[in-house]
Design a protein that fits this description.
The protein is an alpha+beta fold and 122 residues long. It has 2 helices and 4 strands.
């Protein structure tokens, strides 16, 4: 299972469960592996900035920026899942995103959480 179109949950491509909770109902944590993260920085191109500026005058969703942010979040989450899998985890608990401006030229998106090995409670 993997990341769905909007950056959350699981789809049929990833074997790593990613949740925002501290535990998974019906499962126990067998091993805490530690913090994992996925990071990406995206620059803004002048066309999107001008379009967003004009759109903000009349209101409404900035669809181009929304699409870019979804893609960026998905990439960060994919990197988090890759790191968790490489370290032997089958789940990431307490998953979060952190978004910051990167020197006024782009946006840094960091997906992070705690990699663990979980198993169903017998």
């Amino acid at each position: 299972m993997g990341i769905d179109e909007y950056g959350g949950g699981q789809t049929a491509q990833s074997d790593v469960l990613v949740v925002t909770t501290n535990d998974v109902p019906g499962h126990q944590v067998q091993q805490v592996i530690g913090e994992v993260f996925g990071l990406t920085v995206r620059s803004r191109h002048i066309g999107s900035q001008i379009g967003a500026g004009l759109k903000s005058l009349v209101g409404g969703e900035l669809r181009g920026l929304t699409k870019t942010l979804v893609e960026t979040r998905n990439q960060a989450m994919e990197r988090l899942v890759e790191q968790a899998r490489a370290r032997g985890a089958n789940a990431v608990l307490m998953f979060r995103f952190d978004v910051t401006e990167a020197a006024d030229v782009g946006t840094e998106v960091c997906a992070y959480g705690t990699a663990v090995v979980i198993a169903p409670i017998p």
